[in-house]
Each structure stands twice: as C-alpha cells, then as structure tokens.
UniProtKB/TrEMBL annotation:
It comes from the Bacteria. Residues 163-207 are annotated as: Disordered. The keyword Transmembrane helix applies. The chain crosses the membrane at residues 212-231. Keywords: Membrane, Signal, Transmembrane, Transmembrane helix. The keyword GTP-binding does not apply. Residues 1-25 form the signal peptide. This is LPXTG cell wall anchor domain-containing protein. It comes from Blautia hominis. Residues 174-189 have a biased composition (Basic and acidic residues).
Length: 237
C-alpha cells in the first residue's frame, strides 16, 4: 500500500513539474519601434517596426502612432520578416489615416520569422526639431495570431532622443477583444499628439490556456482514491 501511495504522489509531482516547465518556456511576442539610423545632414530617420519572440505568427493587424508635430512620413516598405506575405498599409500617404497614425495588416500561409522587421519607414524632421529633442513612437497589436490562436503581445512605448539613443517605457499587453471592432475606415486620430495610443492596456487570452484547475482536481481525485484504498484495507483487517 505504501508503494501505491508513493507512486501516486510521484506521478502527481511529475505532472506539476512538467506543466510548470511548459509555462515558463513560452515567451510573449514583443512588437516595438526602433530608430535604426539618424541622418543629420538630411534631417531624417530610418525607423522599423520590429518583432521578437513571434513564434508561429501567421497574421496580424498593427496600429502605429508617431509624433506628427515633429515628423513627416515618407513611403514605407515591408520588412524582411514580411517579405513575400500579403501586406496592406493604410497611412496618410496611401489611405485615409491622419498624420501620426498608420494601420498595417499582414497575412501569410506559413509562419513568418519569429524575429525581424515587419515594416521599414522613413521620416523627415520638421522645422524647429533639433538634436536632443524627444520623439515618441508607439505600436499597438490589435491582432496577432498563429496556428494556436490569438497571441498575447508586449508593446512598449519608445522615446527617441534625436541624435542620441532611444529608451523603452514598459508597456501593457494588448487586448485583441477590446480592439477587434476597430476598422481601417475610422478617421478618428489619436487623442495624444505625442504618438501614444489611447487604447487601454489589458491582458489577452492566447487560446491555449494552462489547465491548472484540471490538474488540481486530478490531484485531489488521486488523493481521494488512495485514501479510500487505505480505509478499505483497514476495515478488512
């Protein structure tokens, strides 16, 4: 009987350990803006919308905000991670978006690279903007999906100091459900001219949730069975 109890406890412990390893192994995709180059003579910036840890991503919809009071957008193009995919960009140059806002939608039959640039953009500094001034960039993942469903996404805010470096402000995790009714035809600009999204930060369910409750119930059931076996043996004695 003692062997059965030890075996049951050992099995339950292995289940908890294996489940814990699975949870910690998964990494949250991160999408952010990065200033790649500053051209002082041309007063221009090369900026990329990049992704990290985007395993098994096949499609998505992003909303990008930049400081329209300090920057003028020039034509953009697909980054290396979206090469060969279906890509739609709606901005002040190609669609109906106001200055300071862009909408990017992409889809692929296969998973795109987990790390790399999604969109490469160019900006001209407006008159009056000088080195040392701060410029804010923000991207919101309204939709990011893969083979396992919707993905929780980290989207930090980026503050770039002209001629120097950029700093990252911790951001929340985008909520697809709160943003799913937003369409590319809306013409309402961001309420913050500094490029910050007005979307509230939240938590997104991935569609592949950890069944912690099920494992606890299973463990409780195993303990009950073992206790019942012990009671039965005592009665026979």
């Amino acid at each position: 009987m003692k062997r059965r109890i030890k075996a049951g406890i050992g099995l339950f412990s292995m289940m908890l350990v294996s489940q814990s390893v699975w949870v910690h192994a998964a990494e949250t995709p991160k999408i952010f803006m990065e200033v790649a180059d500053y051209h002082a003579g041309e007063r221009s910036l090369d900026v990329s919308c990049k992704m990290e840890n985007g395993d098994n991503v096949t499609n998505g919809k992003l909303r990008i905000f930049y400081d329209a009071e300090k920057l003028t957008l020039t034509p953009s193009e697909a980054g290396e991670a979206l090469s060969g995919t279906m890509l739609e960009v709606n901005d002040c140059l190609t669609g109906n978006k106001p200055e300071g806002e862009m909408v990017v939608a992409f889809a692929s039959a296969e998973s795109i690279p987990s790390d790399g640039s999604l969109l490469d953009m160019g900006f001209k500094l407006k008159d009056g903007v000088k080195e040392g001034d701060e410029i804010t960039f923000q991207v919101k993942a309204e939709k990011l999906s893969g083979d396992n469903g919707d993905l929780e996404t980290e989207t930090p805010e980026i503050v770039y100091t002209v001629g120097k470096e950029q700093a990252e402000k911790p951001g929340g995790q985008d909520n697809d459900k709160k943003n799913q009714n937003k369409t590319d035809n809306d013409k309402k600009p961001s309420s913050n001219s500094g490029g910050k999204s007005s979307t509230k930060k939240g938590s997104v369910k991935t569609g592949d949730e950890t069944p912690v409750a099920a494992y606890l119930l299973l463990g409780a059931g195993a303990v009950a069975v073992l206790a019942g076996c012990t009671w039965t043996k005592k009665n026979k004695q």
